[in-house]
UniProtKB/TrEMBL annotation:
SMART domains from the UniProt entry: ANK (SM00248)
Coiled coil residues, start to end: none
Pfam families: Ank, Ank_2
ANK repeat extents: 77-100, 114-146, 148-171, 298-330, 415-447, 448-480, 481-513, 515-547, 548-580, 582-614, 615-647, 648-683, 684-716, 718-750, 791-823, 824-856, 857-889, 890-922
Gene3D superfamilies: Ankyrin repeat-containing domain (1.25.40.20)
Name the record gives this protein: Uncharacterized protein
UniProt entry tagged with the keyword 4Fe-4S: no
InterPro entries in the cross-refs: Ankyrin_rpt, Ankyrin_rpt-contain_sf
Keywords for the protein's UniProt record, in alphabetical order: ANK repeat, Repeat
Start-end of Basic and acidic residues biased regions: 21-54
Residue numbers spanned by region Disordered: 1-54, 880-901
Length: 938
């Protein structure tokens, strides 16, 4: 792990190598910095290039040029180009760098920030072909040590690079081979720890006297977790070690060493050594049982370890010394369970014969069993052994059945899964087959009520599902959610499983609980054409709708799936089915989506082109509303009614004339070419030209006139004319166009004039500038602009209420009556103040409006300002000399109104401007309640 981290760090350092600095800096700091930056960029580019001929040519060019760059130039990690070349094993590049070196050979000894040389890099990466080349150039490079005190030999030995070790040993003295690192270990120790015994032999041949321990008995023996099998050759090497005699005789003398030694010997399968150790302990008579059944950090005994490794001979030795076969590890697994999990056949058979193990197999406490462990490890061979053993038992039929049931149905784990569920979950087809053939129940569910067959379908395991079907699985059974296997497979979109199920006597029209979707509906919804074909071939009913009354054809139309729609129609799908929420047909959906191909497909059948949905809209109307001209053209050519109406008797032409659409002229021309009614009236008795006038569509009005030259532009509905609508909605161009056509500009709805519409609140809010322009146009007509409307309000009063200073000024310039009251007695000034329009109020006062007028309640403009709590307007009126002593018809005063509203600022303003002191007690209390200070007047 430390080696991996170090390598990862080195790789990260390489990627961060952004600059290079020469070992001999120049005297000029500025020039040196500039040169470093140049080299930094060159080396950064160079290191990021792919290795190959192009890279070598660039290196050669850099070295040969005037770049002050050679093999001794280092980057920010301290590495030279030679470090990188050696690490990548590029012999030709190494030779090139050595040939172009300007400073001789000392660069071979250059160490990076980890104090590693180029030789360390080559040895670490097993580039043995570079060792001779690098070492022959510098005799002392083999003795260079890194930050850990390790030589190149240490790293080669640690990583098992035997050819590199052999090459290094040829150039090293005995003393150099015997170097200790900072952990007091030699290269021999590193090889022994890692289990590279060929390298151990090579080093011992070089230095047969090396027996220096590193303080660990495990390292003296070369003890390290390895999978190396026991061989006579290995035993010979181990016994030749100087410490072996001492160790083999010292087991009893050093009891604290026995446990790790026994575990390591067991793990590595050293059966003779284990036997020797156990015999010594047996003869000595001390602590054998406790040692054999001792556990490691995973609660495993030596018997567990031997079972995992398949060291049957050691298992037999341990069993002969009464090792506990019932002991469970941290996963609650016995040695037999572990032998099953790791597929150790001989070991499993050995343990299986023990009575304790057999008793454990029959437990039912949700702990792991040999069968569950074999399934977990995907060990088919062990499962076969278990059922072979069961079939060979010479027992009565009743006892056999009991054993079979225990074996196949006992549950395991917190989810209480059976062996069949486990094998199904892991997609182990062969094990599932064995279990089913031995009578494993398909109805045994886990804690979550999941059954094996449904689990196989849910996981999409085709081969496992096929196995269940061959063993008689019920294809029409339902799970806890009410789903059949076919519904689940269609829901998952698994065509392979659907085919398997359709090969059986399966109900293809079963409905899913909740939304009543059938398998065909699910297949259509997922767009799976092959699945739809397969279901239709199996006689699936294509007209069964779901809970929302959606049929497969309706869903296909919504998805725009032509192929599936065609398939369904070829199987007599009902083309005029409607959904529950909107009564729309598949043609409605296709027309609305603009799917031309599907619309064409539907039109070839007996489709109802005039079907209306809940909004009374036909497919044509939907296509017009969504601006699908191609669909509109198709439907009209097939005879769709161009004058169809929806709610409020609106036709497609009405809609187009009033709506904002792209390329609307093309749509209207299309409708007109199919005899759309230009004079048709909607529910408000409006004609299409009225909608066009309201929307400001001058070009559309022209189109309508071209179609119907004698079109009555003066037609009115309760006084509402096209001209009135254009004025009210600020359609300047239409107003000018209609005036040029000589329309009647006087007709208006009852109780209003055209001037009222031009200064209407909507007009001003929409575009005040346009409203002013239209009003100026109207002034050119011979009309009374001071007439009141049905409420007695004049255009000036309306303009004032809207706060339009421009319109107010325009009307005043035309000599509109400035103080003309409405039916409630409010003058334009009072109206402006009541609506909080300060600028308009100031404009009216500046033009001579009276500030002491009274309405029918006796309220003055000041009273309105106080009542509506317009502080700025109140201050302005007081400044203009408004009478704060005025009383309304109910004897209330502005000060009283301000106090009742709790408005401190207005109260202070009135008091400071001389409000009367003759106040009644309730008013006094109100003033005190809002914290107003009394003055000497009270």
């Amino acid at each position: 792990m430390n080696l991996l981290r170090r390598r990862q760090q080195r790789t990260a350092d390489e990627e961060l190598a952004l600059g290079a600095v020469h070992h001999e800096p120049e005297s000029n700091p500025r020039k040196e910095k500039q040169q470093e930056q140049e080299q930094e960029q060159k080396l950064a580019d160079l290191f990021n290039e792919p290795r190959g001929d192009a890279q070598k040519q660039r290196i050669k060019k850099l070295i040969d040029g005037k770049n002050n760059l050679d093999a001794s130039t280092v980057d920010k990690t301290g590495r030279t180009l030679l470090h990188y070349a050696a690490r990548h094993g590029d012999r030709s590049l190494v030779e090139l760098l050595l040939q172009r070196t300007k400073t001789g050979r000392p660069e071979l000894g250059i160490q990076d920030k980890e104090e590693r040389t180029a030789l360390h890099e080559a040895a670490d990466e097993d580039h043995h072909e570079l060792i001779e080349l690098l070492v022959s150039s510098s005799d002392d490079v083999v003795s260079k040590r890194d930050l850990h005190g390790r030589t190149a030999l240490h790293w080669a030995a640690n990583n098992g690079h035997d050819l590199t070790v052999k090459a290094l040993l040829q150039h090293m003295t005995v003393d150099q081979v015997d170097f200790l690192d900072k952990f007091n270990q030699t290269a021999l120790h590193r090889a022994a720890r890692s289990g590279f015994y060929d390298i151990v032999t090579m080093i011992q041949v070089k230095n047969p006297g090396d027996s220096r321990p590193d303080g660990s008995i495990m390292d003296v023996l070369g003890l390290k977790e390895t999978s190396m099998a026991e061989t006579k050759d290995y035993l010979r090497k181990l016994k030749s070690h100087k410490k072996w005699t001492e160790m083999s005789q010292g087991f009893v003398e050093h009891p604290n060493m026995l446990k790790p030694v026994l575990f390591w010997l067991t793990q590595n399968g050293l059966k003779h050594v284990v036997a020797l150790m156990l015999e010594k302990l047996k003869n000595d008579g001390s602590g054998l049982h406790s040692l054999i059944n001792s556990t490691d950090c995973l609660k495993r005994t030596p018997l567990h370890i031997a079972s995992i490794r398949g060291h049957t001979a050691i298992v037999e030795s341990l069993l002969s010394h009464k090792a506990d076969t019932a002991r469970r590890d941290f996963e609650d697994k016995t040695p037999l369970c572990l032998a099953a999990q790791y597929g150790q056949e001989d070991t499993f058979r050995c343990l299986q014969e023990k009575e304790e193990a057999q008793n454990r197999m029959q437990s039912n406490n949700l702990m792991p069993t040999p069968l569950s462990s074999a399934i977990e490890g995907e060990k088919l061979n062990i499962v076969k052994i278990m059922f072979e053993k069961l079939s060979e038992e010479a027992v009565k039929e009743v006892q056999y059945e009991r054993h079979r049931k225990i074996l196949t149905e006992q549950k395991y784990g917190q989810d209480e899964v059976t062996p069949l569920l486990m094998a199904t979950q892991r997609r182990q087809r062969d094990i599932v087959d064995i279990l089913l053939k031995n009578g494993a129940s398909m109805d045994c569910a886990d804690k979550n009520r999941v059954k094996p067959f449904f689990l196989a379908v849910d996981h999409g395991s085709e081969d496992v599902v096929e196995c269940f079907l061959k063993n008689g699985a019920a294809v029409n059974s339902k799970n806890e959610s009410g789903l059949t296997p076919l519904l689940m497979a269609c829901q998952k979109g698994n065509m392979g499983i659907v085919k398997l199920l359709l090969g059986k006597d399966v109900n293809v029209n079963i409905a899913r609980p909740g939304d009543s979707s059938t398998p065909l509906l699910l297949a259509v919804e997922s767009g799976n054409k092959s699945m739809v074909r397969a279901l239709l071939k199996k006689k699936a009913n294509c007209n069964i709708a779901n809970a929302e009354s959606l049929t497969p054809l309706w869903i296909a139309a919504r998805a725009g799936n032509y192929t599936i729609a065609d398939l369904l129609l070829s199987h007599d799908a009902y083309v005029n089915s409607t959904n529950a929420s909107a009564d729309s047909t598949p043609l409605h959906v296709a027309a609305k989506a603009g799917n031309e191909n599907i619309v064409k497909l539907f039109l070839t059948g007996r489709v109802n082109k005039e079907a209306q949905d809940t909004q009374l809209m036909t497919p044509l109307f939907h296509a017009v509303e969504k601006n699908k001209q191609a669909i509109v053209k198709l439907l009209l050519e097939e005879g769709a009614n161009v004058n169809t109406t929806r709610r409020n008797a609106e036709t497609p032409l009405h809609f187009c004339c009033g709506a904002k659409m792209e390329e609307e002229e093309g749509m209207i021309q299309l409708l007109l070419s199919h005899s759309a009614g230009v004079k048709n009236q909607d529910g408000n008795r409006w004609t299409p030209v009225m909608h066009a006038a309201k929307a400001g569509k001058e070009s559309i009005i022209n189109l309508l006139l071209e179609k119907e030259p004698d079109l009555d532009l003066n037609y009115n509905s309760n006084g509402t004319t096209p001209f009135y609508l254009a004025v009210k909605h600020n359609r300047t161009s239409v107003v000018k166009f209609l005036l040029q056509r000589g329309v009647d500009y006087r007709t208006c709805p009852r109780g209003t004039t055209i001037f009222h519409s031009s200064v209407h609140v909507e007009s001003i809010a929409d575009d005040e500038e346009a409203a002013v322009e239209i009003t100026e146009l109207l002034f050119q007509m011979d009309m009374d602009f001071d007439s009141p409307d049905i409420d007695g309000s004049t255009p000036l009063s309306i303009a004032a209420s809207c706060g339009s200073k421009a319109l107010t000024g325009l009307l005043l310039d035309k000599k509109a009556e400035i103080d003309k009251p409405n039916e409630e007695g409010l003058t334009p000034l009072a109206v402006a103040i009541a609506n909080g329009k300060l600028e308009v109020a100031e404009e009216l006062i500046s033009k001579g409006a009276k500030i002491e007028t009274r309405d029918e309640k006796g309220w003055t403009p000041l009273r309105y300002a106080v009542d509506r709590q317009h502080k700025d307007i109140t201050a302005m009126l007081l400044q203009k000399g408004a009478d704060q002593d005025s009383r309304a018809d109910d004897e209330s005063t502005p000060l009283g109104a301000a106090a009742s509203h709790g408005d401190k600022k207005i109260v202070h303003s009135l008091l400071n401007n001389g409000a009367p002191s003759e106040l009644n007690k309730p008013l006094w209390n109100a003033l005190r309640a809002i914290g107003t200070r009394t003055s000497s007047r009270f």
